[in-house]
Amino acid sequence: MSRLAARFAELKADSKTALIPYVMASDPTPEITLPLMHAMVEAGADVIELGAPFSDPMADGPVIQAAAERSLEHNTSMHDVFSLVSEFRKTDDKTPVIVMGYLNPIEVMGYQSFAQQAAACGIDGVITVDMPPVEAGDYVPALEAEGLDPVFLLAPTSTRERIKKLSEVASGFVYYVSLKGVTGAATLDVTSVEEKVAEIREFIDLPIGVGFGISDAESAARVATCSDAVIVGSVLVKKMTLNNGQTEQERAIIIKEISDILSSMRSALDNGC
Amino acid sequence: MTQVKEKIVAPDYSAMPDEHGHFGVYGGIFASETLMQALDELRDAYEKAKTDKKFQAQFDEDLAQYVGRPSPLYFAERLTQLAGGAQIYLKREDLNHTGAHKINNTIGQGLLAKMMGKKRIIAETGAGQHGVASATVAARFGMECIVYMGSEDIVRQSPNVYRMKLLGAKVVAVESGSKTLKDALNEAMRDWVTNVDDTFYIIGTVAGPHPYPAMVRDFQAIIGREAKAQMQEQCGCLPDALVACVGGGSNAIGLFHPFLADESVVMYGVEGGGLGVETGSHAAPLCSGRLGVLHGNRTYLMEDSNGQIIETHSVSAGLDYPGVGPEHAWLKDIGRVNYVAATDSEALEAFHTLTRAEGIIPALESSHAVAYGVKLAATMKPEQRIIINLSGRGDKDINTIADIEGMKL
């Protein structure tokens, strides 16, 4: 069983909703990400979504765009993301790590080479924002051959046919984008999320995570009533601008702030619903 | 990927792309899930419009009565003498309403937006010509129009920014990334994702996810169809060569496409060579780039070894783009079209040459085609004929030119 499947099975047995934080690798400095990943697990994260930066993040709002720019100032490459996960795995062999990004950095490596290296360093799944199922004919088998879960997104605009089609290729979990918009947008309509998630469950048996627009413990708890996982990104990534992350002390401040947010979400998820 | 240089059987150019928008390995639909349904709807609406006699009649009428087509095919006698070789003809897209070929496409997409009941138009622009053409159509159809433009381009193309505002469009300065055309495209995509229900995104070039590359090509193919008929009428023959500048590549594909099956016609797409392709400071992905995926399609890109898009440079804002339409990528690989580059200084020289020799002030983008076309003509025989696509007029560029030459206006 993959780490992702094992983790979701565990959570289901405990009737718990997964908390999935997203941070960008090497944002704001390469030194912060590894201790941050461990701290997030400590604060209650069940799965970690690690952003691989891209120069043209079309689906992201200003907060994550800026994160990608900060990360790229350090020339962060996919190989740096791999090394980071290798290091993480030395002391944490249980927490699933999903890499999230755009297709081109994977495209230039070749799908097979990417998948082999990603699996070797302990990555469990991949979310590629601009890779829809219709183009994924070579991509999905390349990932699956290495035991990686191709995680796909669904949106409020996804039709029943598209949901059905996605059910044929998705594994790990399905990422439901809660709103029409980019990451970090403010409006979350829980009723429409509930309806759409119910529709998705008619076709797809996988756990469903909901992301985009979840900004605090309260919205996390509300979304948790209908989903298997709550994904939070922009609200955490905003903390990366508290300082430059140059010194250990500065990094500790950022890590503490992010851990506090996750702790409050964790307790809201565990007690609030 | 293999480079197929020898054609065994000529491909059926009119059958491209396939149903999912692929030109060989290029093109496709690499878009985020939120947009997929909107792209499907657009594809269906466009497929319907293609065979809808009323739509086509309206399009033709607008091109004639509003744009002022057909644009002349002009024999440039003095330029021909200067070049000293083949006879040079200019396809005068600069004489269209709004001053460039861009209006052909925005009329088509504007009619489609109307047909689909959309009330809000968004567009990206580099040189501002597509922004102006979109704002023009929006004004005419009474639609709201928002144009995304890189803040660097806003400085370079201030006359066009003012024109868009006069036309009632809201121009949004894009400050992210390199602050040029690619970033404007990113921002327009973000707008579309957010306002997908009531918004029509008019892409200005033959790039983007399917159906844009094919749809924009079809709207621009009027250029080549006219040129072919005009050459037949004036000289009773086909041209020997075609030359057009290539940023995203819409004016070039518009001229080339109706001639693709005419094997005797040699074609040259001229990219923005910037300071020289060998310097790395240019906007010539077909001349030097690698395969990648950006803005919804697989194509040649200017990217680093990590797959990050690198900043491009061209004196011409309209060519300053790291990608290129997927059909061009395919035409390069099958060897049907030759892709070359003209540098900033070659384009500037051609700008002055054409202005003084013919009394025609070309856009800086088109000046790249003129630069290569004059060079090419010199290597050809006097009885041969080439058509250079004069895609736009240069009024918008006079501030840039004056700046470069140290003059104050």
Give a concise summary.
Chain A is α/β, with parallel strands linked by helices. Helix content of chain A is 48%, strand content 14%. In chain A, helix 6 packs parallel to helix 7 and helix 10 (217-224) crosses helix 12.
Explain how this protein is built.
The complex is a heterodimer of chains A (273) and B (409). With 273 residues, chain A is α/β, with parallel strands linked by helices. Chain A has helices spanning 3-13, 33-42, 62-73, 78-91, 103-109, 111-120, 139-145, 160-167, 190-203, 217-224, 234-237, 248-272, and strands spanning 18-24, 48-51, 97-101, 125-128, 149-154, 174-177, 208-211, 229-232. Chain A has a single domain, classed as Aldolase class I (TIM Barrel), CATH 3.20.20. The radius of gyration of chain A is 17 Å and the shape is globular. The two termini of chain A are 28 Å apart. Chain B is built from 16 helices and 14 strands. In chain B, strands 3-4-14-9-10-13 form a six-stranded mixed beta sheet, with helices on both faces. Chain B has a four-stranded parallel beta sheet with strand order 7-6-5-8, sandwiched between helices. Chain B starts with 21 loop residues before the first strand and ends in a 5-residue tail after the last helix. The interface between A and B is large, with 43 and 40 residues.
Integer count of domains of chain A: 1
**Named CATH architecture of chain A:** Alpha-Beta Barrel
Biggest chain contact? A-B, 43 and 40 residues
Secondary structure class of chain B reads: alpha/beta
Radius of gyration of chain B: 19 Å
- CATH superfamily assignment of chain A? Aldolase class I
**Number of continuous helical runs of chain B:** 16
Strand content of chain B: 15-25%
Low-confidence residue ranges of chain B: none
Query: How many angstroms separate the termini of chain A?
Result: 28 Å
Q: How are helices and strands ordered from N to C of chain A?
A: HEHEHHEHHEHEHEHEHEHH
Discrete helix count of chain A: 12
Helix content of chain B: 40-55%
CATH class of chain A: Alpha Beta
The total count of strands of chain B amounts to: 14
- Overall geometry of chain B comes to globular
What is the straight-line distance between the termini of chain B? Answer: 51 Å
**What profile does the largest beta sheet of chain A have?**
8 strands, parallel, barrel
